[in-house]
Each structure stands twice: as C-alpha cells, then as structure tokens.
Design goal:
mainly beta; 6 helices
C-alpha cells in the first residue's frame, strides 16, 4: 500500500432509489439487524416488516451499484420473500466449481507438507452414499438465499425462480447466525438453543454435524474463504476456531472482555478479526494463534469493569475489504470506522463517518460498494472506489502472500517450517504488521 491512505467513501446515487423502496408506506420502521450481498455483488438482501405485522426479505438487484444515472429498472426489488417470524440472519450461497483443494498446495515443496484426508474427500465420500438421481433438491446451479428466523426455522429460496426450495427445522430457538461456504454449499448455523449445526445442501440439506459444547448462545459463525476453518463467537469473550476436516478445536482465543458479536476472515484465511462489546476489534493469526493487532473504539481504553459492561461503544459488525486493505466496523457510538488492516505503522483509525443507530455493515465481493443498516429501517449505500488504498493495484509481494496462504489451506502451520529466511516467514504469517 502507499505511504498515505486517502479514504473518501461517498454516498452513492443508488442510495436515493434504495430509500424509496425501503420507505414505502407498506413497511414499518424496524431494526435491520443483518444485510447481505450476493457473491456476484449484484443482489442485496434486506429484512423488513410490513404494516400488517408480517416479516419479509427484500432482494434488490443492481448490475452496478456505482452507476451515476440510475432508474427504476437499474435498481429494482427483484424478489420479496415472506417469512413466518422475524428475520435474524441472512446469507447468500452459490455452488462454484473453482474450489481449491487444500491437499494440493502447489506453490510449496511437497517435502515440507503432510497429506491427511482432505475435507473435500470427506464430503465426496458422504455424498456418494446417495445417488444424485434420487435427490429431491438441486443446489448445483443458481443463487440461493438462506434466512434464519426467530422460530428456529431456516428458509432457503432460489433467487432466480423465487421458489421456497427448502426449510430446515432442527434448531429449537432463534437462528441468530448463518454462513455458506464459498464453493461447496455447506451451511453453518448457530442458535439461541446453544448449538451450531452443519448442513450439506448438495446432499438434500442433510444436517451432518452438531456442535453443542456450550451452555449459552452462539452469536455468529463464519467459514474461512478456503473452507478449512469455522469460527464461532459468543458471550463471555468466546472465540473458537475449528478445523473443518476433523472438527477439533484449533484455538480458543482469549482476549475479549465482553460478548463477541461478529467475526470476519481475511481473504487468504490467515487472519481473523473479532468484534466485541468491549469496544475492541482483535486481529488474530489463524496460523500461530497470536494477537496481531487491537483496534480500539474508545481512547483511552476503558478499564475492565467498564469494558465488560454498558460502555456505549459495542462493536456490532465488521467487514474486511478485498485484498485485506481495510477493516470496516460498525459501533454503537453511531460511527463507522475504517482501519488499515495490513499497515505495519499502527492500528489507528484512518476514517470515521457518523451513522445514527447503526447495526450492520456489509461489503460487496468486488470491494466496490458498502452497505450499512440501522435501527430506523434504513440501509445506506456508499462507494469505496474513491479510496486510494482499495483502488490502487495490489503489490506483487502482497499478492504472493495471499496466494501462498490460500494455497496452504489446512497445512498453513507448516509455513513456519519452510526453508526461507525468518524475515520472509514473518511476512507470510503477518508478523510484520504485529503491534508490540
């Protein structure tokens, strides 16, 4: 990145059209707890409540959110899905065929890598027990949207046809978090019933694993981009990282002083950011398990007794931009903040914007558009194209680090044993940006 990052995110022209759809007289002002962009960046899902008390999800479509001259056909309500209860979580899923098997880290010397059974092999073995001919649902094509509801159900719709394809009913209480894998249509869900459940949509939505090691709510679950890790966060500073091949705990991170509400992986799966009500976001290494950085939202940092209570600066939502340039946070002090994620200079904020009653932040896969939701039933669209750190080409050195970490997959710890200089090893595992 350049020596100076200039951040000037601007409200998009599409924002005005979006408000017309959301502020329709048929909708009430409701808390928009969760919003989600599709993998293709063209669809945005927003939960709403109508004047008759019904709950629904609006799916808006726009081929280019940054277009200056938009009309009603360029940005439209593509689908409206009705739900039986309040919507707590949303996620898009789409089968992709460029899944990069972690058992083939082609950039690394095979002498320094072990070859255990990969997650891909385990998936194929389980799916082979049932013929594709006899399966009731086809999730191999098209785009799907999953919604976690307050009554414990998970509705899954086909975006193209508008069909309610599947309802998953195994949770006993509110489904407060869910997330799809990037390629293989695996769905992870968490609930107020204290469990995490794993579903294979390519196997007719078969629920193949339940994690129930807690006596309290799990707030959110996230797959890593390479699908080798699953993170779960919850009350009492809970941050747990699982190996998705063996489903053993890799790390149980300790550092937060309050409930952890959200998490996000870097695009190469080597870093994990966790947002907590203790006013902090902590950046962890998934390779070494150490804390790389702490991003403070109150300076000076509050004492433990205040950080663990109602401090007025709960960090509720986070997002990481493409190529790991920027960390974006949404905080209860009515601020959106931008932090340089991979800068080795500091963890100081580089931009903030006031957004009343903010709840959630989401960013498109292409990194060009950001959406923020609030308690007033609103969602605002901002462009990130004017951000110098995002628009400029990625450095070759940084690109190589991303590629190597992504290629390693489940073998990421063996990077530490490669026959390279310690300077390069530290760079690959992001110890060069660690704040000491």
């Amino acid at each position: 990145m350049s020596n100076q990052i200039i951040v000037q995110p601007a409200i998009l022209p599409a924002n005005q059209l979006l408000q017309r759809h959301l502020n329709s007289s048929v909708f009430l002002t409701n808390n928009v707890w969760k919003i989600a962009f599709s993998p293709c960046s063209q669809y945005l899902a927003i939960p709403k409540q109508d004047i008759y008390g019904g709950n629904c999800v609006l799916v808006l479509r726009c081929s280019d959110w940054n277009t200056k001259d938009l009309n009603n056909t360029d940005l439209c309500v593509y689908q409206r899905f009705n739900c039986t209860s309040a919507i707590w979580s949303l996620a898009f899923g789409q089968r992709r065929f460029d899944w990069n098997s972690s058992c083939q880290p082609t950039l690394l010397n095979q002498n320094f890598l072990t070859t255990p059974k990969t997650r891909r092999e385990l998936l194929n073995r389980r799916r082979s027990s049932a013929s594709f001919v006899n399966r009731r649902y086809d999730f191999t094509n098209n785009l799907f949207l999953a919604a976690g509801l307050a009554d414990g159900k998970i509705n899954i719709w086909n975006i193209n046809s508008g069909e309610l394809t599947l309802i998953l009913k195994d949770h006993g209480s509110t489904v407060c978090g869910l997330d799809f894998t990037s390629c293989t249509m695996q769905l992870a869900t968490c609930s107020h019933d204290t469990t995490i459940k794993l579903w294979d949509l390519l196997d007719d939505g078969n629920m193949y694993k339940t994690l129930s090691e807690w006596t309290h709510v799990i707030n959110a679950v996230k797959w890593s981009p390479d699908e080798t890790l699953l993170c779960a966060v919850g009350p009492y500073g809970l941050v747990v990282l699982y190996d998705t091949t063996s489903w053993e705990q890799l790390y149980k991170f300790e550092g937060h002083l309050h409930s952890v509400g959200d998490c996000a992986f870097s695009s190469d799966s080597a870093l994990l950011a966790t947002a907590s009500y203790d006013t902090q976001v902590i950046l962890w290494s998934t390779i070494t398990g150490e804390i790389i950085k702490i991003f403070a939202h109150k300076i000076p940092m509050p004492l433990k007794i205040y950080a663990g209570g109602d401090n007025g600066a709960f960090v509720r939502s986070i997002a990481i931009t493409k190529y790991n340039h920027i960390l974006i946070t949404a905080c209860d002090d009515n601020k959106i903040r931008w932090f340089p994620l991979t800068s080795n200079r500091s963890s100081q904020m580089i931009y903030e914007r006031t957004e009343a009653n903010i709840l959630c932040v989401a960013i498109t896969t292409n990194g060009e558009t950001m959406a923020v939701s609030n308690r007033n039933g609103e969602v605002h669209l901002l462009s990130t194209l004017s951000t110098a750190g995002i628009c400029q080409p990625i450095l070759l050195k940084s690109f190589c680090r991303l590629l190597i970490n992504h290629s390693c997959g489940a073998h990421r710890k063996e990077i530490l044993n490669l026959p390279l200089s310690q300077h390069l090893i530290k760079y690959l595992v992001y110890q060069d940006i660690k704040i000491r």
